[in-house]
Structures are given as C-alpha cells and as structure tokens.
Amino acid sequence: MQLKGKKILILVETFYNEFEFWYPYYRLKEAGVQVTVVGSGSANTYKSKAGLPVTVDTTAEKITVADYDGVVIPGGYAPDHMRRYPAMVGMVKGFAEAGKLVAAICHAGWMLVSADIIRGRTVTSYFSIKDDLVNAGGNWVDKEVVVDGSLVTSRTPDDLPAFMRAIIGVLGNPNVA
C-alpha cells in the first residue's frame, strides 16, 4: 500500500487494449491508489479490441485536474477515438501543464500528440506511430519505458512491468507535483 492516498485516472474508449487497461488498473489498486475510470462521454461502457467491457466511473468533462495525481492512457485504437473529444485532450494537457503524471503506452502517444505535450521531450511508443511523435517534436527512442520528468511512455503490452514500475516510481516521488 505504498501509494495510499494517491488518485489516478485511467482513460478508456472503444477498442482499448485490454492488457494495457486492466494490468495498470489492478496494479495501481494493489499499490493503494484510488483508480477512477474516465470515458469520453460517448458511452457508459466500452469494449476492448477483444470485446471485454469496462464501465466508466465518470466522463472527462467532470474531471478537475487538481483533484488527481495523474492519468494513465492505455493504447489499442482507443486513443484515436479519445482525441476526438476536446475534454479528453484538454484534460491530458492539463495534467502535463500541472507537472503531474501522464503515462501513455503503445498507441496512447496519439493523445500526447493531440495534447501538444511532447515537443522537446523524450518518448517511446509502438513503432508504427514513431513518425507522429517525431513530427510533433518528440525525441523518439526504442526502449521499453522512458521517463521524462512526470511523463512516462512505453511501447507494448510486453513492456507493462517496466511501465508500471516507472509509474509507481513517479507517483512515489515527492518532487513530482
């Protein structure tokens, strides 16, 4: 329970990657974090690429960044749907501007691009969106996890153990807002 009292959002939309959602969800709960599932508002329940449902606790419009310690963005095709909703994009940008944890894995880099928060930052992602991140001003590297201040990025479900160690490390660091 090393992170008791911390509050984290996990974003979800249609076609989310079930591993990249559920692994962080339960790992954060195991560490004592209060996890809130946030959707775009287009539905109350979303299905993963494999058809696994998840019901949201709230929507992006109802979130106040100051009330939370960070946000985790799973990949799959969900980030392409998430970035169509200004409230979701604005929320991610708000966390970055506040110096709070923003964690993105796989295709979740698309949300970072839309939020315009990677210019000059070192990041990683699934290889197929490398060009998107580079064109948005990011310094893309091929590593299982990259920590650049309070921004944590990772490539694929195989990298989830390193991704979660990095997230827990950032959340446990008193120097991160």
Question: Please, what is the CATH homologous superfamily?
Answer: Class I glutamine amidotransferase (GATase) domain
Number of strands: 11
- How far is the first residue's CA from the last residue's CA? 20 Å
SSE run: EHEEEEEHHEHEHEEEH
Counting DSSP H or I runs of 4 or more residues, the number of helices is: 6
Tell me the radius of gyration.
Answer: 14 Å
CATH class: Alpha Beta
Q: Using the coordinates shown, work out and report the CATH topology.
A: Rossmann fold
Strand portion, in percent?
A: 15-25%
Give the overall form: globular
Largest sheet: 7 strands, mixed
* Class based on secondary structure composition and strand pairing: alpha/beta
Structure description:
- The chain is α/β, with parallel strands linked by helices and 177 residues long.
- The protein has a single domain (7-171), classed as Class I glutamine amidotransferase (GATase) domain (Rossmann fold, 3-Layer(aba) Sandwich), CATH 3.40.50.
- It is 31% helix and 23% strand.
- The protein has 6 helices and 11 strands.
- Strands 5-2-1-6-7-11-10 form a 7-stranded mixed beta sheet, sandwiched between helices. A two-stranded antiparallel ribbon has the order 3-4.
- Strand 3 (45-47) and strand 4 (53-55) form a beta hairpin.
- The radius of gyration is 14 Å and the shape is globular.
